[in-house]
Design brief:
mainly beta, two-stranded antiparallel ribbon, two-stranded antiparallel sheet
C-alpha cells in the first residue's frame, strides 16, 4: 500500500548565486511542491 499526498503550496528554497564580479549572495527560489509518496510496510 502507499499513501500519496499532493499539495499545490509553493516551497521556498535558498540557493547561493555568484554574480559576474565574484560576489556571492543568497536568492530565494519558489517551486511547486511535488507529490510525496510514503510506503507502508
Amino acid at each position: 500500500m502507499s499513501k500519496q499526498s499532493m499539495t499545490g503550496a509553493p516551497v521556498c528554497t535558498w540557493v547561493a548565486v555568484t554574480d559576474a564580479s565574484g560576489r556571492t549572495r543568497m536568492e530565494a527560489r519558489w517551486t511547486t511542491a511535488t507529490t510525496v509518496v510514503t510506503r507502508a510496510a
